[in-house]
Fold this sequence. Notes:
Blueprint: H1 15-35, H2 41-62, H3 64-68, H4 73-93, H5 97-103, H6 113-120, H7 124-139, H8 141-149, H9 151-172, H10 184-207, H11 215-219, H12 227-239, H13 241-266, H14 275-280, H15 285-339
Helix pairs in contact: 1-2, 1-5, 2-4, 4-9, 4-12, 7-9, 7-10, 8-9, 10-12, 10-13, 10-15
Amino acid sequence: MAVAAVAWYRWSFEPAVIIPIALVCLAYGLGALRRRAPLSAARLWRHLSFAAGMAILWLTLASPLNTMAVHLYLMQQMQDALLIILVPILLVLAAPGAPLGAALPGSLRLPAMPAIVRGAFGSATLTTALFIAAVFVWQWPPYHDAAILSPPLRAAMHLSQLAAGLLFWARIFDPAPAPIGLGYARRLMMLWIVALSHIGLGAYLTLKMTILYPAYDVMGRLFGISPLTDEATGGFIIWVPSALLCLAAAIMVIHMWGRHEDRVWAARPAWSPSNSDALLYPTTGEALVELARPKNRKLAIGVVGFVFAIYAMTIFAGVLNHLNDRRGGLVAHAVGSLAR
């Protein structure tokens, strides 16, 4: 395909994209009207979060970004980050289950749907593995090139990324604390594992010196960007912005953790001189610090371990890149010797 013939600046209005998004927005609006709940500041914020998520989803799949994503690896990674991180976070924080459920006929409503989702995907290991797989599987060069060259396969890639993102972030920002939802420490561990996976993959793609995705050359790269620069920039998007979004989510989880402990403290029973109450609800600053010391120590160890893991993965990516370059140089030298 000639690069000059690519109308990258045009918007697309595919019915397969517009109709589902329009139906979901219509159902949400209808459900919000049926509930007739008073418009509080928190509810208004959730409506805005849902609108922002659906708007970004539409822009991701219908704007020129979608066209450029099959001609530039960096644009594809930008689209992937929106689909698997930003859009799901906005939709999950909007808590759209109640309005969407209210839009359904009474016979089709499932009040226990949150419990069903928690039961089917309650495992933190399974949810994290699905999220990481949705990133790594589609970054495998044969699968990635096939998705770029095949519109149906590319649609399947987008759908799987969005579904994995919704499942993962729904567990991360689940308003129900343990034991119904996941413990906050476990949520932080999930985020750190995902961030480390993005850092490792992104560092390797940024520092490598070989071309992994020739499908973009088949489609025609835009703006005269070289293949190596294109892929290195895409790797940087996976490395830094995606990992930073995970770290921002970790800060939000820590905030949720603190608010939960404040609610528990506010709901404590009247203090009595019994030993059990004194242990659960200390009345002096020293006792409170002593009670929080184990949790603070675990959190500090986790943060320090995360920082060291980042450095270790970056160094590993650099060493692996050096070994690949050296092997490539040896192969080139051998081929040149044989030619002479």
